[in-house]
Amino acid sequence: MNIDNLKADLKERLTKGRYEHTLRVTDTAAELAVNFHESVENATIAALFHDYCKCDSLEEMKQTIKTSSELPDLLLSFHHELWHGPVASVRIEENYAITDQEIKDAIYFHTTGRADMTKLDKIIFIADYIEPFRNFPGVEEVRETAKTDLTKACYQAAKNTVRFLMERDNTVYPDSFHAYNDLNQHIFGGIKK
């Protein structure tokens, strides 16, 4: 896959701000891939496509969710901000013949996380969270942790996200809870009293 051609496609497809965010996430993901011994090529492809459908209309995304056998209808019961990753994981296969399940999963779960995240899942999840223009409470701590411990950084990000949603009385997609619980188990090793 020619990365320069892909970037040109994305520049046409995304808003200027979304495209620039995508490039920052891609750079961050590539750095994390090097640091944590993951395929830089896979991290680059997944990062470039992570927001591939972010600028699509809600109706287009809804239609893809309804018609794709790969996507659960449950998505439609949650905020539309969660739709673009799963929809992109389907569309990149249709539009670019990308069938690598690990890349597709990293794109699918980049917003919510999930239980048993792969290293690539974690890299895309955290790269999107800590890219250099992100500025919100807790992000600096996660950035610092991501230099040495990918799992702990993902745990911090998942915890911050779940807390943020709950404090605003928003619903939390089940995969976000599963990610938090699984990461907690990996870090703390079980039930705490």
TrEMBL record:
It comes from the Bacteria. GO terms for molecular function: bis(5'-nucleosyl)-tetraphosphatase (symmetrical) activity. The keyword rRNA-binding does not apply. It is an enzyme of class 3 (hydrolase). Its EC number is 3.6.1.41. It catalyses: P(1),P(4)-bis(5'-adenosyl) tetraphosphate + H2O = 2 ADP + 2 H(+). The keyword Transcription does not apply. Keywords: Hydrolase, Iron, Metal-binding, Nucleotide-binding. Residues 14-142 form the HD/PDEase domain. Transmembrane segments: none annotated. InterPro entries: Diverse_Catalytic_Enzymes, HD/PDEase_dom, HD_domain, YqeK. This is bis(5'-nucleosyl)-tetraphosphatase (symmetrical). It comes from Oceanobacillus aidingensis.
